[in-house]
Amino acid sequence: MYKILKSCIVILVFCNVLVAQDAKLDKYQDSLQNIIKTSSVISEKKEALFLLGEYIVQRNPDLAETTAKNLETNYISKDDSIGIRRNNYIFAASHRWHGDYSTALDYYEAIHKYSKRHNDSLDIAKSAHFIGSISMFLGKNVVSQKRLIEAAEIYNQIGSPTEKAKINNSLASFYLNMDQLEKGKDQYLKALRQFEILKDSSGMASVNANLGLVYIELGEFKKAETHLMTQKALNVVFPTLREMGFHYDFLGVLRQEEGRLEDAYQEHLKAFNIRKKLSSTYNLCESNLNMGEVLIKLNRYAEAKPYLKDVFNYDEHQSLHQQQRAYELLADANKKSGNYIDALENYESFKIISDSIYSKESLEIIAEKEAQYNKEKKDAEIALLNKEKQLLDKEISQSKTIAIITTIWLLLLLILAIALYKLYLKITQKNRIINKALKDRELLLHETHHRVKNNLQMISSLLNLQSKYVKDERVHEILQNGRNRVQSMAILHKNLYVGEDLNMVNIQNYFEGLAENILNSYNKTAGDIKFEIKAKNIIMDIESVVPIGLIVNELVTNSLKHAFPPATIELPAISLIMVELERDHVLTVKDNGIGIDETIQHKTESFGQRLISLFTNKLKATVTTNTSDGTEISIIFPRRN
Predict the structure, then answer these.
(1) What is the pLDDT of residues 546-565, one digit of tens each?
(2) What backbone phi and psi angles, to 5 degrees, belong to 548?
(3) Of 297, 326, 391, 458, whose CB neighbour count within 10 A is largest?
(4) In this predicted model, what pLDDT tens digit does every residue of 436-456 receive, in sequence order?
(5) Who contacts 54 (Cβ-Cβ below 8 Å, separation ≥6)?
(6) Are 214 and 189 in contact (CB under 8 A)?
(7) Residues in contact with 201: Cβ distance below 8 Å, sequence separation at least 6, in sequence order
(8) How far, in Å, CA of 429 to CA of 433, rounded?
(9) What is the pTM of this model?
């Protein structure tokens, strides 16, 4: 059964090389033929002929070959190398679909040689892929391996995902052809994943069919049937019934292995009836062989022999493997039916072809290995001789000057090394002094910020203590406001004290501490006032942050004091947002309160308002106020470089 598996898999892989995309609608062919018939533009008609030949080659190989001959005679000049190569692909495919693999291989090898001469990597890979697949099919395993690996190396570097998937599919079949079943299965599964990602229906159909045969050989019949039925469902994308011929033939192989011989016969018969109407004589011979085999197993020897003998009526595809298998099955049929003389003759023919195949393969392998070895050995010897000659020439021409130059360089290097070492010692000493000064400065700054923070906290505490002894509400409010202003600066120095950079402030952290302090000073919590702060990833220097902190303190304090009279706002909210633009900072303080009373907005400025005005001027800021929905104050000031 493994001989059947190898030949069947070769054919289906070969078909997948040809059909990369789902079949187009027939109206596409009609449109091309209409252009060819009506167009008066030569270049347009020529391109339509190319597209028609490429499109119909598997549907109608005869019409494709006629189209290629038309192009060759009337549209392609002798110096049009690109057109000739493109047309040769159509000729090659038409012969291939007729089963004339020898002629098809000649075309592909001519294309491959041309592509090699012109360093066309993708066309080298494409033609090598065809040559590798056909050679594998014809039993030329050494040539097949060489060309498939050549294509794979190119596709792995510059190929499309579809090309990579197809070459993996072909390599899987090569492994199976070399009896490496597990390696072939793994390679098929890899190709299937690639085709599934690409949503390439024809590729998935091909690999599923091949996996079906692999699992038959492994004895995993349920998996085999699953893959074969998946292939059948995907076959709708193909333009001919050829692929259903594969399906029925492979299903027949499965039924044979399951011992369901009558079912196997019916499946092989379906495949045979399809294939005798198609152009590929190779596929028809495969069906003849499978029909002969199942009929022998059913003890219907007389019916089996005509199918097997018919294999020898087709020699255009030059398949020694099929002839070998036909003689083997005929020998079995004649032996079981009592025709021992014929059985012996058939067996002798089988042995002659087997010896021919294996001796030919052995010679090819030996010749290739020997040529490769000799080439590598000769290349290595030439490279060594060239290197020795270069060294000898260099020694002769430079022997008198090398010693002098070397001595001078050594002296220069010694002087340079001494100078560099002295410089290194000086730099190291200076770096120690600088590092110590920096550490001392950092320690001093830490201590300064810490003491300033403590002093400001003390002042804040004194103001808070003093306010408890004041009966006048106005004075109490003034003291409380003063305490908040001092506290805003204390929080700033606290952030500097605990931060990594002693001169820069994280605005988000600073605003959060400032808001918490103001809420606490008015005996408010997050449950009383919804506070939103957005200033992430903004870092500013202390000189800019001091006025910003005092401005925010005044604005938030004003909101808490005036924006939310009792029983007016269901959920009081204040947002504090700063964003960093390319040239400016934008600070926005907004509440959802009752807004600013226009009747008192322009009265005498309070101390807090004067502070805001003073600090916005210091920041060179522009202030805008919006009272349409609560109070929103935006302050735009330039960034410090």
Answers:
(1) 888 888 888 988 888 888 88
(2) -65, -45
(3) 326
(4) 776 656 666 565 656 665 666
(5) 89, 90
(6) no
(7) 22, 234, 237
(8) 6
(9) 0.51
